[in-house]
Amino acid sequence: MNFKARLGGAMLAAIMSTTSFHGAFAAEDTIKIGVLHSLSGTMAISETTLKDVMLMLVEEQNKKGGVLGKKLEAVVVDPASDWPLFAEKARQLISQDKVAAVFGCWTSSSRKSVLPVFEELNSILFYPVQYEGEESSRNIFYTGAAPNQQAIPAVDYLAEKEGVQRWVLAGTDYVYPQTTNKILKAYLMSKGVKAEDIMINYTPFGHSDWQTIVTDIKKFGSAGKKTAVVSTINGDANVPFYKELANQGIKAEDIPVVAFSVGEEELAGLDTTPLVGHLAAWNYFQSVDAPVNAEFIKEWHAFTKNDKRVTNDPMEAAYIGFNAWVKAVEAAGTTDTDKVLDSIIGVSVPNLSGGTSTVMPNHHITKPVLIGEIQSNGQFEIVQQTPSVVGDEWSDYLPDSKNLISDWRKPMSCGNFNVATGKCGGKGS
Amino acid sequence: MLRFFLSILLMILALATQSVAQSDPKALIDALGKADFKQAEDLLGQIAASADPRVVPALEAFNDGDLYVRKSDGAVFITRASGANLALIDPLSGAAAGEAPKGAMTKLKINNSLRRVLRSALGGLTLLSPDRNVRLSAADAVLRSPSAENLELVEAALAKETDREVKARMEEARAASVLSSDRPVDQKRAAIETIGSIGGRDAISILMSASASLDASLKPDVDRAISKIQSSLAFWDLGQNVWYGISLGSVLLLAAIGLAITFGVMGIINMAHGEMVMIGAYATFMVQEVIRTSAPQLFDWSLAIAVPVAFLVTGAIGLVIERGVIRFLYGRPLETLLATWGVSLILQQTVRSIFGPTNREVGNPSWMSGSFALGGLSITWNRLWIVAFSLSIFFGLLILMKRSAFGLQMRAVTQNRRMASSMGIRTAWVDAFTFALGSGIAGIAGVALSQIDNVSPNLGQSYIIDSFMVVVFGGVGNLWGTLVGALSLGVLNKFLEPSVGAVLGKILVLVLIILFIQKRPRGLFALKGRAIEA
Predict the structure, then answer these.
(1) Among B115, B364, B453, whose Cβ lies nearest the Cβ of A240?
(2) Is A203 strand, coil or helix?
């Protein structure tokens, strides 16, 4: 598969390089943007919604007169949940379709797959999903949450408000949970939690038999200290996990579960009555009480012609990313990548929780962290909201990255500047 | 000077509000309307201390999220949905208090720590309820979140209690409350004894959380009680693991049993098998949708209705696939593999287009929710039913194969096609119906799997590998092999999982199977005789 993709990519690149200058002279009456989300395969469950949101945002923007007096045109491709295919499709969008910017990807694997393409062809990607951090690219904007915008505030909430002293870090076995759990473990230990009070557990993708693990959690939780589960369990494995929790009678009052990958969409396939009180940490919930959110939900229902469709956090991140790009393009007066990269830093746009989000020099954004409890209607009740937090790309709690910062403004223009050595480069270079 | 007077004034005010509060739970409940989580906790403590049974409906409504505050005057009401409006009920008297539009009311928020306080308060307040079951769950609630405040309530209730089971539970609840109170040491020692005799994880949990605040002279008693519970748990853990293994095995059996026919008996490498399971699960979803909209009282029967529906739907699809694709490819395994894989992708994308890519909610009927204790084992109802269901499908199929005319023809055709054909059996139709049977059984499996897994277009993919593994390991062509293979893989998996983790456990199982197949290429129960050579 890898070979095929590489061969395909190389061939495409070869064809593109011979035809590219034709395109440059062609009259442009629309501005194209790429939408790179899986519409088939395992990730279609999450990503199809984001494609719909992008189409809606483009439609709304065109109603307002487009950008720079031109209409926007969304070019939708389907990378089919296949990581190498993401790179191939990204190359196609940039070289062949000549899109001004791309909105897409969900998994970290897909983002890592397209990163070199965006750097090589100098285009812009807006990535709308919460991720593990430890990355900063000149060509990527991370509008989802970094670990300090989701995981760490959630743990703080449990420790302060629920008095949790023992922690189960349960996750699916891939890069996002592994890195997040590493950061969380370091963070908890820096707060004085002992190693024997932390249990880390990994399960394969799509794990469906949770009996043993739920029993282990019960066992771990009967040591007389308040216990909580911090779940980075991904996608499809969540429904069987929560069903097993409910059937084994673990209530949120006894052992609360706080999840970073469970939102309104994931709960839609679940009877949430036994789950009331379990938590999730995001930067947005559909239940946010703000006029801008009510407006967004109304548009979304009208666009999908279905008033039962829920909204979720990655949709808000896509909304922020899109509006920030529009504003930056209008400020720069062009869609030229280098000019937009300069003008976008410092751009502030409204987010859906009633405040504003600003694009920071490290290509992450500011946004508040919300903690919500699951309700019986599948929505979240917000029990805590922090002020805006700046996304931190290089975690301060990992020895490898605590000295690194990222600042893409000139003259530094560096994604991994080491403040200890005063040099650009190091991990992730 | 002024400050001094002010503080005196404030003190008097505080005293006054407190005395009002204590005499009048209504004021306390109204105060909930303005309180944040922390203040609400204190208020709930005061409401519970009033020991006024009239507050119970209000607290229950608070727990269920039905307690609202009116924006105009800050009065708190219990509410019921009434069209677009909310019907208001006075929180204490239970009298109807008119209606209000939703916009004029604000819901009182609740979080986990409030829920814990509520559980304990409600437990204490309902200990004297006339309903036996309410008293039992009240005692349970006190036991689960013991607090010194409830001790006197429990003792008062205990004195009046006549029902044996409730009385025993109340004794345990009393013991748990004693441990968190300031009673003398010998009472606490007896309490430790009582908790120790409950056994199980919950007892350990109560003892461990109490032990921090206990007198040092009681430490040996606590340790003894805990180690006694732990040694009996170690024994039950073994049984629990076996049960988990059987239940995982029965899921594997369900997924594989249809394949044991299409692949095992007919020899078709059927990559679309998983999609039949998925379609069966969607059939369950459709049945439940129809029931929800037209006959909600039948909901508990939805699975029983879904079984024949799923069988017929997937069986019919199987028939079409066999007639349309597979019959042209007999004897060409590679082409069959590719063709059925293509079919599986088509089916997946079709379902995705019709039902959307997101999960669909399939409800659990009440008899499949929750768990019960059997000695030290905790057995969940849905797993128990799935074990029973998969075994009954297995034995039903076995009888069909061994005792019916269709089964006889099926075996005859697969063992010696030409001979069967010359005996007058219409082999082509036997093939078609055998494939339809295998697909139909996969569909039935989907009904059961919809209860424990996601109903999404990807459902089938997660089971296809496991299914092939079970059939190959058990021995192709032998139903008993499938049964033994599924159960032993399940138990093996569950014994590896606690020590090496789920990820490595799965890898180890695969490695063991590869080694096993090297030794015995035909699986556990190899077919013997000329049929193999054909």
Answers:
(1) B453
(2) strand
